[in-house]
Each structure stands twice: as structure tokens, then as C-alpha cells.
Amino acid sequence: MKNLIIVTIYLSAFLLVTACSPESATMKSERILVQPEVVVPKHAPAQLQNFDWITIDGGQSQLDFNPQVDILFVTDNSESMTSAQENLTKNIGEFTKGILNNKMIDYQIGVVSVWDSSEDYKKNKKDSYDMGDLRFVKNAQAQEAKNRRFIAKSDINSSLIAPTLKIGVVALKDGGPENEEVLAPLSAALSPNKLGRGGVNEGFIRPNAQLVVILLTDADDSSKNITGEQMAQELVALKGKKVAVYGALVRKNDPDSAKDFALKIHPKYHPECFDMTAKTPKLNGTCTEGFGPDVLEKFIYQANAHHSTVEEIRDNHFMSIVSKDFGKDLGKIGSDITAKTLAKEILLTQIPRKVDGKYQIRVFYGKQEIPNKAKGGWLYDDENKIIKLSGDIEYKYVEGARFSVQIVPVALKQ
Fold first, then answer.
1. Domain hosting residue 58, numbered range
2. Is the dihedral of CA 113, 116, 122, 125 positive or negative?
3. What are phi and psi of 376, to 5 degrees?
4. Which of 11, 178, 201, 238 has its CA 20 to 30 A from that of 30?
């Protein structure tokens, strides 16, 4: 027991000395103050991603280029139209020059005649065509191909066009039309029963094609069951913006000798201009500007209003069938049709970057780069994200070539 007490005293003294030594104090302090080092992960500063040019797949269906146009002539075949039809066929080359020479355009051309709903016409008419039936294609010898209703690009034979469009005239005594209806046969030609499966005009109107209607008459419209406004609505309902209507007509200031008989006398169109109490109606002096095909002119303005101004329609969609410049006028219409057919829009699926006020966009047709300009090139509609290609681009045609678009997309913040 005595020995145990002595050992305990010595141990307590030793612990007291070591606890008070400077070295022991330092060690204790280090154990309290030194903490494990915290490793903070390092991140690179945020940066804008650097995008390169990317190509929108030229094989996508929206970038395919199949410019199609279906051209329908509605031609007056009354006996007063002999010289006008001769004028058309003599100058048809001016009209088709741009369309045929541009290998990109896939065209179809057909013609229907005017109609007359009178009982005399139905009783005396000698041909087998019903209202709105496309006329058979004719060769250079005026022989009809009974199995062909329209000319196509695949025919590769432009010599068929002039004889097919020259449908001839029929005298009144031989069953020709007297009250020329223009809009009624146009409506019938484009009706589902004519265009549908088994219809006489089947295959003429294609879903993606531009529709062009050309009226050729020296009279005004006498249709009883359709107005110009209704016909314009039918065309837009059928083709949307892909429709254009032109008129080779007589004008008010053309001589009466060039006009249809009814258009010369004109009481049925404008009775306010005549003394209707006389046995033979006579002008009463209130209408001094002459008479023109007012119904058809109004229809042409209405049918084109969705894509052209009044001034553009007046300047580009009318011509006089008795004009000495008839060939030039036809050529002008042909060029206008070509431009409308070749115009194209491409919807972008990504937003292009804008650098120094310029969108980073490149447009190609095959390997040919299309310039960024209004005439002969393309413009970008940033509101609708659409590239609009004008119809007057000078393409270097390549079989099977398509469009492709390269852009630098807008970079997103990370």
C-alpha cells in the first residue's frame, strides 16, 4: 500500500511538469488551430460557344426545286376571232420562249373554248366537247391526238403548242357561240368532276404547280351562274397564292371593228348608255369613252390581288389582241410567268447569326452560289425566318440539282 501511494505521487508530478512545458503548449495549440485544407474546384470562365458554318441538308424536301406551271388558255372561238387566233399562233414563240428555254420549268399547256348556254347553241353545236373540256392536242398538220388533252414538258416538242392553241372559229350559222361565256367554262374545267379520277382533264392541275390562266377574247363575259368575284375565289381556294390570270382582250379605245358585235352595241352590258326605247338601241351620249370587257377586267384584278398591286396588274396582266406589239406583249407575259414559277421560299429551322449587320447565310443551287440581292438573288425575311429567292436568278441548270443553305447559327450562352 505504501509503495502504491509513492508511485501515484511520482506519476502525478510528471504529468504536471509536462503539461506546463512550452513544447506541450505548442502541440496543444496546433491541434486546436490547424484545420484540414479545403480544396475548391476550379472552373473555366463561361464563354460563348464558337459555332462554325453548318449546312442545312440539301436533300430535305423543303429544299427540293421542282418549278411546275400549268397554263390554261380560255379561247373565244366565235367567228369574229379569226384574226386574233392567227395573231396568237403567229406570236406564240414570244410567249413560250422563256418557259421552254429554261430547262428547270416543268410545264403543261391546255386550252378550253368559251361556252354559250343558249338552247340554239346546244342544238346546233357540232363538236363533241362539253363545257370545260380540254381540247385535244394537235400536231403541225392540225391532226388531233384523241388520247391527249394537254401538252407536257415530257413531249419535248414545242411544235405542238401553236396548232393546239389555234382551236379555230365556228360561224354562228354553223353552231358557233353568240353569247360568249368565259368564266363558266373556266370554272367547269377546274371542277373536281373534270380533274378527278376518270375526268376528261385528269392530271392537268398538279398540287404543287403554279396555275396560270390566259383569257383570249374580243367580247366580255356573259356567264349566268358565276361572277368574276366568285371565280376569283374559286381560283384562290384551289391554288392559294400560286395562281395568276392574264387577259388578251380588246380595250375600250380599240376600234369597234376589232370588237365582238355585242361589245360594239353593248346594251346588255351597259343599258344606261343607250336609248332603250328605240327599236334598235342607240347611244344616248352619256358614255363617251367606248366599251371594253369590264366584267373580265374586274375579274383579272380580283384574281391577282393577293400577290400584285393594282398598278402591277394593270401593267403586266393585260394586253390588246389587236395591238401591233402583240408579240412583245406575249413575251412580257411569258417572262412574268417564268419569274413567278421560279420564285422560291426556304424556311430556316435555325436562327442565323448577324455580324456587322449582315446575316451569316449562304445559298446554293447545286455548286452555284446565289448572290444576296433583291434582283437576281435572295433576301432574308427575319420576321418569318424565310429565305426568298427571286424568279429572275440566272441558274446554271444541272439535272437533279437541289438547293442547300449554309448558316452560322446564333450562339447560346452557356
1. 54-62+344-407
2. negative
3. 75, 20
4. 11
